[in-house]
Design a protein that fits this description.
5 helices; 37% strand; alpha+beta; single chain
Length: 191
């Protein structure tokens, strides 16, 4: 790293002129031409305002630094995968909804669901799964969700009567899967 000598020079200068200790992580090139990460800690001993001795340690942190960089890369890959999932979820032509298993509250809905049911996203996210069902369907829905929550794999929950925002009823064939959404146990529902 071309900045390595500059960074070390600045740190030494600050130590000598201001008495400021330093702790640097630097990439250096070994005699064999390999990049290696090191940590340099430095401090000074001062007498009468003059630095008469610099002391410190150099630590090999190559394995730790590479593991950190790999973790950051994996985190970025996961974030990218999450963005791709979100895009696929949103552009699906089939209505998809995600609800919290404990509260039954909607956590996410795609554009097709908004169009199918007639609600705005904010309205949907303030609702529970019982809000789109006639009162007569609530016990059956609760039973199905309770039974489904015990399963880990995709399953077909059956046909249910749903309500659109305008009050219109329609039959909805439901397929759902257990997922974790924002750290919460949830169900992904395809209508």
């Amino acid at each position: 790293d071309p900045a390595t000598p500059k960074n070390l020079k600045k740190a030494l200068h600050a130590l000598l002129t201001c008495g400021r200790p330093f702790d640097l992580e630097l990439a250096v090139i070994t005699s064999s031409g390999r990049e290696k990460w090191i940590r340099i800690l430095g401090d000074g001993e001062f007498l009468g305002g003059e630095c008469n001795r610099i002391f410190g340690t150099v630590q090999d942190i190559d394995a730790l630094k590479r593991a950190q960089m790999e973790s950051l890369e994996k985190a970025q890959e996961l974030a990218d995968a999450g963005k791709r999932y979100s895009q696929l979820f949103q552009i699906s032509p089939l209505p998809m909804l995600v609800f919290d298993l404990e509260t039954r509250k909607y956590l996410d809905v795609n554009q097709a669901a908004l169009e199918q049911y007639g609600y705005a996203r904010e309205e949907f996210l303030d609702m529970t799964i019982m809000d789109i069902r006639p009162v007569t369907e609530v016990p059956r829905t609760e039973k199905a969700v309770t039974e489904e929550s015990k399963k880990d794999f995709r399953n077909m929950a059956g046909t249910f009567t749903h309500l659109k925002k305008n009050g219109e009823k329609f039959l909805a064939e439901i397929i759902s899967s257990s997922i974790t959404y924002a750290g919460r146990p949830a169900r992904l529902v395809l209508v």
